[in-house]
Amino acid sequence: MSLLSFFQEEFIEAGCDEAGKGCYAGPVFAAAVILPRDFYHPLLNDSKQVKEKDRDTLRLVIEQESIACAVAKVEAAEIDQINILKASFKAMHLAIDQLQLKPQLLLIDGNRFIKYKRTPHQCFVKGDGRFASIAAASILAKTYRDEYMQQLHPAFPQYNWQKNKGYGTLEHRNAITQFGLCEHHRMSFNIQPGKEFLQTDLNL
């Protein structure tokens, strides 16, 4: 199924998505993107369906060709304080705050959202596979988060975040068993290294 360019024609709309909600470690990132009416790229899709090298290519295209785009993050310590769902919404709000053009409608990936100021929003389950602006936001959130985790890796090589990006892979769980947790782990996630962790967003 091809992506829809827009949800409607009347208002300026921004697509919003997050990355890293299910991770054991690191921040949750979110992005907001306003695309031009004629934007099209054959590689653009939900970030989980796009190869890493193609995500990097798309990031450059989106940043160059979007009308406005922004990325924001909420760190692990704050995730522990307010919970991951609220942290994801906060990261989206922070990204929207940075947009140089104010959107009149927000397209949100998922089934819930905390209203942003007075701006109307519409939630879409699997919206990153339905609308180009949400897909673009998913690409930016994912690539910025991956880059951030790779930058953390040299200081914490035992967890191999350059590969697993903080997700609960077997390798990461085994490292937690051996070395324990660090300040970038989400203590509120009740991480139990011996338990199987099911994570569908493992396009690392």
Classified in CATH, the superfamily of the largest domain is: Ribonuclease H-like superfamily/Ribonuclease H
Annotated CATH topology of the largest domain = Nucleotidyltransferase, domain 5
Biggest β-sheet, characterized? Answer: 5 strands, mixed
Overall pLDDT: 92
Distance between the termini: 23 Å
In spatial order, strands of the major sheet run 3-2-1-4-5
Gross morphology = globular
How many beta strands in the DSSP annotation? 5
Indicate the low-confidence ranges by residue numbers.
196-204
Question: What's this entry about, in short?
Answer:
This protein is an alpha/beta fold and 204 residues long.
How would you characterize the overall build of this protein?
- The protein has helices spanning 52-65, 76-82, 84-98, 132-152, 161-164, 170-179; strands at residues 13-19, 28-34, 68-74, 105-109, 121-124.
- The protein is α/β, with parallel strands linked by helices.
- The chain has 2 domains: 13-151, Ribonuclease H-like superfamily/Ribonuclease H (Nucleotidyltransferase, domain 5); 154-189, no CATH class.
- It has a 5-stranded mixed beta sheet with strand order 3-2-1-4-5, sandwiched between helices.
- Strand 1 (13-19) and strand 2 (28-34) form a beta hairpin.
- The longest helix has 21 residues, at 132-152.
- It is globular.
